[in-house]
Design brief:
The chain folds into two domains: 127 residues, Alpha-Beta Plaits (2-Layer Sandwich); 52 residues. Helix 2 packs antiparallel against helix 4. It contains six helices and five strands. Strands 2-3-1-4-5 form a five-stranded antiparallel sheet. It is an alpha+beta fold. The N and C termini lie far apart (106 Å). It is rod-shaped and about 110 Å long.
Length: 181
């Protein structure tokens, strides 16, 4: 890379790192090009970015950003997956954890969420969280359940009364039918 390309890369990374909400470092050593492309595609579908880091350039770029908490972990072959939307962080963690389970050569190193460092075990726990939409559906279901039970309780009295009236009507019809024959 020329000096100008390096400066451009550092400027782009610095801008990305300023808006990042969650970032996960991985050791990709041993993955094939096809496996890396599959991982990039899976992450891109979630809205995340995935890039192999040039450590020196990354060190220059993360100064004065939230990513600086991972300074000691940016060494050796590292790639980073990051996103600037907080709601998508568990989705990215799930993609990385699932990919690491099927491709043991991908090692999860550490992550960062709003300047808080998380280790691979915490990434695994994060990946098991339900999505925001699922949590909203559960909350809505929990809020609606008592109201639904109350409505069903109130509706049970008139329903039972109507069933009694229907039974009386059927008895009278049966009694009239037997006296007519």
């Amino acid at each position: 890379m020329t000096r100008k390309e390096k400066e451009k890369e550092v400027a782009w990374l610095r801008e990305e790192f300023r808006t990042v909400r969650g970032l996960f470092l991985t050791d990709f050593q041993g993955l094939t090009v096809g496996e890396m492309n599959a991982l990039r595609t899976a992450l891109r579908q979630t809205g995340a970015k995935y890039k192999v880091l040039k450590n020196t350039l990354a060190r220059m770029a993360y100064e004065d950003t939230a990513v600086s908490v991972l300074a000691k972990d940016i060494a050796g072959p590292r790639a980073a997956a990051w996103i600037d939307v907080e709601e998508k962080i568990p989705v990215i963690a799930k993609v990385l954890v699932d990919f690491a389970k099927t491709n043991p050569k991908l090692q999860l190193v550490r992550g960062m969420i709003d300047r808080q460092v998380i280790d691979p075990a915490e990434m695994d726990a994060l990946s098991k969280l339900p999505s925001r939409e699922e949590l909203r559906a559960r909350l809505l279901g929990a809020m609606i359940a008592p109201v639904t039970a109350l409505v069903n309780t109130f509706a049970a009295v008139p329903r039972s009364f109507l069933n009694v009236l229907k039974a009386i009507e059927e008895q009278k019809d049966a009694a009239q039918g037997s006296t007519a024959s």
